[in-house]
Design brief:
CATH topology of the largest domain: Lipocalin
Shape: globular
Oligomer: single chain
């Protein structure tokens, strides 16, 4: 079964761009500030640019540019309109985040609706539970969140990193990966998620960030987060001693004009952001460019992992609160059940091995 919203999005495409995609990123020369000349950057009593509020990073824009788009850095107005209408139509599953990576519009349409899944797949109705008042769509006309390298894709791994990650992937496929909770992945154990900042990447759902400020600190509190809120000193203090390592690293901020620049080092070697090592170095830039938008950019560098640094631009759009507690914790029942299943499989295998061969 294919959910039918195709007529609606084709009609929108025919009359051009009508969706709520922010102006920032639509064209290399455009910015939200230029589209709202009467807007003035608000400031706090101490002079800091005011970044406070609730902001969402929800988007169907993929992290990396889909290969079928080649060197195309921006969708046309018509293409963006068609995609926006298709992605925000009633009934779309907001967790179908790979939809834009599908070149064929009909195949993309099938992917977007939960009713087209294999009937054996049992899950709650994502359209009901995950759809937001402003439906998830494209962030901008960009074809990827990665802006550098220009091909919109994360740079190649170094040979050493490729070998390291291949060995780790092979180890995860071995039965010994289920020997203990200590060998299970960190997201499964509710210790750290791949999207958790820094840098911030859009999670599958509950993608709200609350920012609040004091004279000496900026706090970034992410809703879907297993680590505490990130408290960023902006008083010029140095990073902590290099022997101290955290999953979220050690962040230090400074103002460059109206932009908050945050540098993070001192990552725990087990953090493994997209395969990185403890040499990971992240520079983030938060620039409020309109009443309802912060332009969030970051650059990632780890010479032990990638052949060059890479950068992302991700709009943070104003949204309403409140945020809700995300109560994932390492004592959850899933770990127990995952390990119980493998203990049972091991007992079955041992029993089968002990049976005398049949004649």
């Amino acid at each position: 079964m294919i959910h039918s919203s195709r007529a609606a999005w084709v009609a929108v495409a025919a009359i051009g761009w009508m969706g709520p995609v922010p102006a920032s990123g639509q064209d290399p020369a455009e910015s939200g500030a230029e589209t709202a000349p009467s807007w003035t950057l608000p400031r706090l009593p101490d002079g800091q640019p005011d970044l406070q509020g609730y902001w969402t990073t929800q988007t169907f824009t993929p992290l990396e540019r889909p290969e079928y788009l080649g060197g195309k850095a921006f969708f046309t107005d018509e293409e963006a309109a068609a995609l926006q209408a298709q992605l925000t139509a009633e009934g779309v599953d907001p967790s179908a985040r790979d939809a834009v990576e599908i070149a064929d519009p009909e195949a993309r349409e099938r992917r977007l609706y939960q009713v087209n899944r294999d009937p054996s797949y049992v899950h709650y109705d994502n359209q009901i539970w995950l759809r937001t008042p402003v439906p998830k769509g494209l962030s901008t006309r960009r074809t990827s969140l990665v802006t550098d390298p220009p091909n919109g894709r994360i740079p190649p791994l170094t040979p050493e990193a490729a070998e390291r990650l291949a060995a780790e992937a092979e180890a995860r496929r071995l039965p010994s990966a289920f020997d203990s909770h200590e060998t299970r992945p960190f997201p499964e154990r509710c210790i750290v998620w791949a999207h958790e900042g820094p840098p911030n990447l859009p999670p599958a759902y509950n993608d709200i960030h609350q920012i609040f400020q004091t004279p000496g600190y900026v706090v970034v509190f992410t809703e879907l987060n297993t680590n505490p809120p990130r408290i960023i000193p902006i008083d010029g203090r140095p990073h902590i001693d290099g022997k101290i390592r955290h999953f979220a690293g050690d962040s230090r901020g400074r103002w460059e004009g109206g932009t908050l620049v945050v540098e993070t080092t001192n990552y725990n070697a087990r953090r493994r952001f997209r395969g990185s090592t403890d040499a990971l170095h992240v520079v983030e830039r938060f620039t409020r460019i309109a009443a309802d938008e912060i332009r969030y950019e970051f650059t990632v560098d780890d010479p032990n992992t990638w052949t060059r640094p890479w950068s992302v631009e991700l709009p943070m759009m104003a949204t309403e609160g409140p945020m809700y507690e995300y109560a994932c914790h390492e004592g959850n029942h899933d770990i127990r059940h995952i390990l119980e299943i493998y203990r049972n499989l091991e007992r079955q295998a041992a029993a089968e091995a002990a049976e005398p061969p049949s004649r």
